[in-house]
């Protein structure tokens, strides 16, 4: 199940005097000095008898960032949205939010098609290719609306005082450029396809997380991922069931699913688009399809949000789908470590000691620290692929929410180059990350009198770092980074998955920053 919202995002390279002939439900014009002085805008303004230029001044008022113009004689666009443009000094997240909002506006107006004029203004240090990729990714991800488990006859819903569409109407988007050479057109089309593909990966991760837990059990996710190979033959999928996990002596992983009637699944996705001799990058994602906390049960308030405890696995799936669609020349292996954490007479109890695949024993002091238990064995298992680097992604700790809020994912690593490149890609995509230390002093938190390691320690202090310190014990044989995405992978208000950090990881891989 690849979740693509739009049917197409296309480049429309025009010459003078024909923008008025573009037939679309909504024409978006970013208003800046370059645009209003361009021959393309002057042609539109002439058809409108000066009305557009006059209206564009309203769009430049600080309190009025958008101005909607209804149908004008001589212009085929049914509606025109004059949008106050950003400038090169504005942060990247503002650009992302602007174009995501435009997609939502188009849906709210029940537009089936939209055309966006390239405003020729970009953030400092960025070029047109970056801009076209950003627009494509932002429009595709911004157009997403979850409606899978809603009544199919419901066309609208009320959010606060606003009535909005509960289904996606927008299907086709054109990005309008002008006077590009054949070489520039090819480059622009490549950027748009890449952005569209990454946006599709973002939505795939979002949708997998947004599905209710009874619609996305480990076995159902296994089926979803396997079905993806019908669309993308470049993906090779295999799965390990509970018997396979037991044969591999993954006692840490299996301890999490013991209390559930839903069996665990480790899903391995391989994509081999690079040279055969090239070591793969490995991605490992926590996939707890629902987390009650087990015997160390969580409070009932907000527990519904624990369906998003599999967003790390969702990220892996989204990234792999994007790579396959682009046909990237890279080698990547992705592991989705899926299980459900439930309380029952069979469930692991606080104080139980389990043996991991690595042979290290673990005292489970808190069954709600379960993500690190599945990741411990997944990190050991991935070593058999002889990876160049390993990145795990997990909604692991509430402490990262306190430390960083929702703006950044936490990064801890045993390799500084890897950490630096993750943060660099976060800045490039607006999918930001921030490094926390992983000094040896923190690793004392794993000590216990009854096993080699304890799955919690250190009290309330440095909870995010202590979780990473535990995981580092299973990643000593390779270059590794841990991303705690508990604050960034979903939002509580409004509720929904964000698809992060798919954009960051795709940028890291596609731009080959780890070479």
What does the model show?
The protein has helices at residues 33-36, 39-47, 51-59, 92-108, 128-142, 182-210, 218-231, 242-247, 251-257, 311-326, 371-381, 399-404, 416-429, 463-472, 502-510; strands at residues 8-14, 26-31, 66-69, 79-84, 113-117, 156-159, 162-165, 172-178, 235-240, 265-272, 281-291, 331-341, 352-355, 361-364, 389-394, 409-413, 433-435, 453-454, 480-484, 490-492, 495-497. It is of the alpha/beta class and 515 residues long. The strands form five sheets. It has an eight-stranded mixed beta sheet, with helices on both faces. A six-stranded mixed beta sheet has the order 1-8-5-2-4-3, sandwiched between helices. The protein is elongated and about 80 Å long. The two termini are 31 Å apart. The model is unreliable at 159-164 (pLDDT under 50).
Q: What's this, in brief?
A:
With 515 residues, the chain is of the alpha/beta class.
Task: Produce the secondary structure layout.
Blueprint: E1 8-14, E2 26-31, H1 33-36, H2 39-47, H3 51-59, E3 66-69, E4 79-84, H4 92-108, E5 113-117, H5 128-142, E6 156-159, E7 162-165, E8 172-178, H6 182-210, H7 218-231, E9 235-240, H8 242-247, H9 251-257, E10 265-272, E11 281-291, H10 311-326, E12 331-341, E13 352-355, E14 361-364, H11 371-381, E15 389-394, H12 399-404, E16 409-413, H13 416-429, E17 433-435, E18 453-454, H14 463-472, E19 480-484, E20 490-492, E21 495-497, H15 502-510
Parallel strand pairs: 1-8, 2-4, 2-5, 5-8, 11-12, 11-15, 14-18, 15-19, 16-17
Antiparallel strand pairs: 3-4, 6-7, 9-10, 10-12, 13-14, 16-19, 20-21
């Amino acid at each position: 199940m690849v979740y693509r919202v739009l049917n197409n995002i296309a480049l429309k390279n025009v010459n003078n005097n024909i923008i008025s002939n573009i037939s679309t439900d909504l024409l978006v014009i970013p208003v800046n000095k370059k645009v209003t002085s361009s021959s393309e805008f002057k042609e539109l303004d002439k058809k409108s008898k000066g009305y557009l230029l006059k209206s564009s001044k309203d769009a430049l008022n600080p309190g009025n960032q958008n101005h909607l113009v209804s149908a004008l004689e001589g212009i085929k666009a049914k509606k025109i949205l004059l949008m106050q443009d950003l400038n090169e000094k504005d942060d990247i997240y503002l650009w992302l939010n602007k174009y995501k909002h435009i997609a939502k506006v188009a849906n709210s107006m029940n537009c089936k098609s939209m055309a966006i004029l390239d405003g020729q203004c970009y953030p400092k240090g960025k070029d047109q290719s970056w801009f076209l990729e950003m627009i494509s990714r932002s429009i595709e991800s911004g157009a997403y609306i979850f409606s899978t488990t809603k009544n199919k006859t419901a066309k609208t819903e009320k959010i606060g005082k606003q009535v909005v569409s509960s289904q996606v109407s927008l299907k086709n988007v054109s990005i309008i450029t002008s006077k590009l050479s054949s070489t520039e057109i090819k480059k622009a089309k490549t950027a748009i396809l890449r952005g569209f593909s990454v946006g599709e990966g973002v939505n795939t991760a979002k949708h997998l997380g947004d599905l209710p837990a009874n619609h996305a059990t480990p076995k159902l996710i296994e089926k979803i991922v396997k079905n993806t190979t019908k669309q993308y033959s470049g993906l090779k999928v295999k799965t390990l069931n509970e018997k396979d996990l037991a044969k591999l002596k993954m006692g840490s992983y299996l301890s999490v699913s013991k209390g559930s009637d839903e069996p665990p699944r480790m899903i391995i996705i391989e994509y081999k688009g690079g040279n055969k001799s090239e070591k793969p990058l490995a991605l490992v994602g926590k996939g707890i399809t629902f987390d009650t906390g087990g015997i160390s049960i969580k409070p009932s308030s907000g527990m519904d949000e624990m369906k998003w405890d599999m967003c790390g696995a969702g990220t892996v799936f989204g990234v792999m789908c994007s790579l396959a669609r682009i046909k990237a020349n890279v080698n990547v292996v992705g592991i989705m470590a899926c299980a459900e954490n439930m309380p029952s007479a069979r469930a692991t109890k606080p104080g139980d000691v389990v043996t991991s695949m690595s042979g290290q024993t673990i005292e489970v002091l808190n069954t709600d620290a379960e993500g690190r238990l599945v990741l411990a064995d997944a990190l050991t298992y991935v070593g058999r692929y002889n990876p160049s680097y390993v990145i795990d992604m997990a909604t692991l700790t509430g402490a990262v929410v306190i430390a960083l809020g929702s703006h950044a994912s936490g990064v801890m690593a045993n390799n500084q180059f890897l950490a630096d490149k993750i943060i660099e890609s976060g800045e490039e995509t607006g999918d930001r990350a921030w490094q926390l230390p992983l000094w040896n002093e923190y690793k004392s938190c794993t000590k216990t009198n009854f096993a080699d390691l304890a799955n919690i320690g250190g009290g309330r202090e440095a909870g995010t770092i202590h979780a990473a310190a535990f995981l580092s014990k299973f990643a000593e044989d390779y270059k590794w980074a841990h991303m705690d995405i508990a604050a960034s992978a979903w939002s509580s208000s409004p509720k929904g998955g964000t698809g992060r950090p798919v954009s960051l990881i795709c940028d890291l891989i596609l731009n080959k920053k780890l070479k």
